[in-house]
Write a structure and sequence with these properties.
The protein is mainly α. It has 2 domains: 79 residues, PSPTO4464-like domains (Diphtheria Toxin Repressor, domain 2), CATH 1.10.60; 78 residues, PSPTO4464-like domains (Diphtheria Toxin Repressor, domain 2, Orthogonal Bundle). It is built from 9 helices and no strands.
Amino acid sequence: MNSHPQEDSVDDGYDENGYDRPSKSQVKRDMHALLDLGKQLIALSPERLKQLPLEERLYEAIRMAQRTTGREGLRRQVHFVGKLMRDAPADIIRKQLDVWENGSREETAAMHRLEGLRDRLLDDDDALTRLLSNNPQADVQQLRTLIRAARKEKLANASLLQGQEPQKKHYRALFQALKTLTL
């Protein structure tokens, strides 16, 4: 025999305890999350803030918090920003902050592909042939020069003594050339 008649019912807007709205604890957690997000926004530069979908009132409150120097005044302004965050598109803002902080996954994957291509070019002459067949507009002479210099640099770095800094000038220059070629 089922002692909880609500378990049999279809979603009627109530949770498992019979409440029709979020718990007080959940509301507090949500408010603290918005407050923390507001603190992150206050730490951003004005250029970054302008790139976010913020209402004018929220933007001005954030800028005011950035200019506030007194401890108590700053605390109150931060809480005001947190209050205004209730109406802000928090998920969109969090997503953009994540991209700024970690870079997009696509960008990271593209950089790893370029690093792999650079390493193949240094180890295998056929890799240049494949690269040129896929990118006929490439400057063959420049790429050959960069690859040759990076190979010399790699050999010199292999014979360094303990504590000596390896040179990476040509290694980086080859990466930059590949980056501009594939973009």
